[in-house]
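Run log, item B.
One chain of 264 residues. Sequence copied directly from the ordering sheet:
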Amino acid sequence: MKRAIVCGVAVVASILFGGMALAMAAQEQAAQAEEQQKYVESDDVFRTAGLGSGQLTGEYRLTKYDVISLNIVGFPEGLGYSTVNGSISSSSSSSSSSSNDLLIGPDGRAAIPYIGNVKLAGLTLNEAKELIQSKLSEYLRIPSMSVSVKNYGKRKIYVMGEVEKPGIQELDIDSLNAYAAITSAGGFTKRGRSTRVQVLRVIDDTMYYTQLNMKTYVKRHDLTQNVVLQDGDIVYVPKSNGIRWNEDVLPYVSAWALYKNLTD
């Protein structure tokens, strides 16, 4: 009788532990699937780089370290003001215009007189104009204003793997593409696999990537094998023996994420 009870308990325990093991395995598979979903191969995210200064085609969006100019009718001395009878007024005639140069900081914001820090990174010039004019109108009467880019800030690209000088490369807006980033990093090493270059970009906690064949780009002039980069992109050159995602790419992604957290 005791032996039967012991056997019954063992069977129940086996079923319970077996079920728990299956549940844990299912959870682990679900976690792995969710993790894999964070790394998505997509050609739609990356735009082919044209020749010359083709990076400014389409609607340009402001980014950190850009210097913009506010051209405001009626403020030849900038956004200076004088107080008359307790009210704020311009000290100049409305027929003249002026320029106020503003730097967009690393947080994507620019310090604007009267209204303080305003986030402008990610906005088009028209969107930035509408936002600034709307906020200034609470304090000043502005007949007309415009926003233009005086200086484009350098973009930081993380070039890693089999290049001569791996690390952060600062590129100008007119050379913001994968090939220029690799060239800035000293080019490929002898072990670098130019036919399997990876470009990675984070958008809303999801990392998108595409694969480029730089050998085809150089020798056959296939422009589709070079893409426009954005600030913070990763360009990874694997070894000639191929790519192992977990061993080759993910450690660099983790290092990049850590660096971004420390510097942003």
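Observations after the first pass:
- The chain has two domains: 43-56+154-263, 67-151.
- The radius of gyration is 28 Å.
Flagged for discussion on Thursday.
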